[in-house]
Amino acid sequence: MTIKITSRFKGKMCDEYLELIMKFPLVSIHSDEELEVAQKVMDEILANGKLSSGASLYIDALSDLVAAYEDVHYPIATASDAEMLRHLMEAKEISQIELHRQTKIAKSTISEILAGKKAFSRQIIGTLSEFFDVDKAVMASNL
To answer: With contact defined as beta carbons under 8 Å apart, do 82 and 114 qualify?
Structure first.
C-alpha cells in the first residue's frame, strides 16, 4: 500500500530528511534529558536560516514529539478570565475606561472580571472576541 506522501517524498528532500533522522532519530521522548537534546537539535537546524523541504518535514515531526512530551510532563494551566482580559488589554495597550467606551461593556463588569469576581458570559465573550479580534474559543476556554 502506497501512501500519498511518498509521491512527493523523493530525491533531495528524502535525502535531507533521512540524513537528519540518522543524526537524531524520530522516536518518542521519554525523559527531560531526551527533551533537552531534541530541543538542541531543533535549535541547530533552525539556526541555519531558511529550511530545506526535508529539514522542514523533519522539524515538523520532531516538534510534534516534543509537544507530546511537554503536554504530559509540563501542562500549561488555562488562563483565568481575569488573566485573559488583562493580557488582551495590555497587548492592545488599552485601559478599563477605554475598553468600556469602545465595547459598551459596563465599567463595573470589567472591574469585576479583572478582580476575578465575575466570569465571562457568552455575550461578553462575543463582544470581547470581536473587539480584540480573537477566536471565541480562546475566550471561552473556561466555560
So the answer is: yes
